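Have a think about this chain, C-alpha cells included, and walk me through the fold.
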Amino acid sequence: MTQSNNAVAAIPYLGSGMGFRRSMKQAIFDARDSIDFVEIITDQYAEGDPRYMRELEEASDIFQVIPHGIGLSIGSAGPLSRDYLRAIKHISDLTRSPYYSEHLCMTQAPGINIGHLSPLWFTEPVLENTINRVAQVQNYLGKPLILENVTYAFDIPQAEMPQTEFFNRLVAATGCGVLLDITNVFINSTNHGYDPIAFLEEMPLDNVVQVHVAGGFWRDDVLIDGHSEPVQEESWGLLEQLAAKIKVRACILEHDSNFPESINPLVDQVNRARKIITGPALEQDQPMMAQAL
C-alpha cells in the first residue's frame, strides 16, 4: 500500500447524509438527529465571504462536513491554480474533513472556463497528467483526494481505454479514493446502453470511500442528472448491489432544486440509504461525529 492507500483505508464510517443547501439550512440543522453528516459545495465558500464562513463554522459545529469541489479541473493540462488550492485547503482544514472530494473531469482549458463538468479523454497522456495532478493535490492538502465519476452526453472518440481502467490505474498510481456516484452509473448506463453491474464490478471498489445518490428526470428520451427528484428505484437497486460487495462508509443524497415543502421526504431517503449501507459488518460502527460527542 502507498501512504495514500493507507490514508484511504483509515477513513472512518460517516453514515448517511445529504448535501448542505443554503435554502434548506435551518431544516437541515433541525433534522440533525437524522442526518449523520453533510456535504458542501466548496466553491460556494472559496472566496471567503465572512457570512458564508460563519455558516460553515456553524454547520461544522453540528455535523461532520465534507467539502466537495467543482472547480479543480483535475484532468486539465497545465499547472494547478495555487490560489484555488489555498482556498480549498483552508476549507478542508476548517471542516476537519478526513478527505477532499472532486470530480474526475475538466472544467477549464487554457483561457477558457467550460462551465460544465466535462468528461476526460481516456488516453495515456491524459492519465499521466491526471496522476501527476492528483499527487500534487494530495501532497498539498495532506489528505486523500477522492474522485467522482461524472455523467456525459457522448463518448469522446478514440479513447485508448475504458473509464473503469482509467480509474483503476489512477487509483493504483496515486492511492486516491473513489466517490462512486450510483445515479451517474444508472444514468450513463441507461443513456449509453451498457450494463451498470458490470461497470461497478470493474471499478476499483476497494478504494470507494463515498457514494452519491440523486434523482433525475427524462427529457427528449434522455435521462438527465437533475438532482431535483426522488431517487429512482434503479439507483436504489444499484446501491443495494454495491453494499452487498463492499463496506460503504459514506452516502450523500444530492438534491439541489425543486425542494419539497418539508424536509421529511429527503430525510426519508437519507434513512433509506442508511438502512442499505448498514450491514452486519457495520453494526458496531457509529458516525464519526457521534463518536466524538
Residues 280-284 have pLDDT under 50 and may be disordered. Residues 3-292 form a domain with the TIM Barrel fold (CATH 3.20.20.150). Residues 124-141 form the longest helix (18 residues). The radius of gyration is 18 Å.
